[in-house]
Amino acid sequence: MKRLAAVRMPTSASNLKIVGLDLSLTGTGVAILRLSSGKWAKPELHTVRPRPCPKGPVTRTYEAERLHDVVSTLREIRIFEDTSLVGIEDYAYGIGAGKTNCIFELGELGGCVRYLLIEHGISFIEIPITVGKKWATGNGSAKKPQVAEQMSALWSLPKFDESQYDSSDALALGSAAAHRLLGDLSGKKLYQFQGKLAKELEIVSARKNR
């Protein structure tokens, strides 16, 4: 896939839908940002949780069903419809060797989502974990409560509780992607370091190499 410095914009840049995705095997965070006539709507936040694991060893059948659950729910909340750009957390390459299965399963989920983004013609930005945290807080090692605190302040939202941390992480990713695309976030207070980080993010073109 070709990496581009810009993405094809819709007819009106003042009307956009941008999505943040924090993919996980237990709680995938989703944040949907809508800009209409230059004003941001309240973010639409979701946490996608697959069916509980049955008792006993995790089976290949359950792993496949869990993958299906997450992808199907992402379709149901319409993240692939009329979306201009997605900010998706990049793979955690530093996961320990003892979690090999987790690496493969997350890779499968990421591959399914990226495939659907390309099929729907949606460009996306892969945002490293430390970059997403640093954009949100100024600290690449920030913990989830710190990210949540900054996102509730940025978007004038009630305080996130622990069950909402995945969606607050997704909100940070979506916000960084929107910042990269637009150069700012209309009506939102941003800092110089955020602008520098956003400019360095690469947009993956949705155009197929055919």
Description of the structure:
It is a single chain. This protein has 210 residues and is α+β, with helices and mostly antiparallel strands. Helices cover 40% and strands 18% of the residues. The protein has helices spanning 60-76, 100-119, 129-137, 144-154, 165-182, 192-199; strands spanning 3-4, 16-22, 28-36, 39-40, 44-48, 85-89, 123-127, 203-204. Strands 1, 2, 3, 4, 5, 6, 7 and 8 form an eight-stranded mixed beta sheet that branches. Helix 1 packs parallel to helix 2 (100-119), helix 4 crosses helix 5 and helix 5 packs across helix 6 (192-199). The model is unreliable at 1-12 (pLDDT under 50).
Quick summary of this structure?
With 210 residues, the chain is an alpha+beta fold. The protein is built from six helices and eight strands, in the order βββββαβαβααααβ. The model is unreliable at 1-12 (pLDDT under 50).
Write the H/E string, N to C: EEEEEHEHEHHHHE
Query: What is the helix fraction of residues, given as a range?
Result: 25-40%
Mean pLDDT: 89
- The total of helices stands at 6
Give the biggest sheet: 8 strands, mixed
SS strand fraction: 15-25%
Please count the beta strands (DSSP E, at least 2 residues each).
8
- Global Rg: 17 Å
List low-pLDDT spans. 1-12
**Overall spatial form:** globular
Structural class: alpha+beta
- Our measurement of the CA-to-CA distance between the termini, rounded to an integer number of angstroms, reads 10 Å
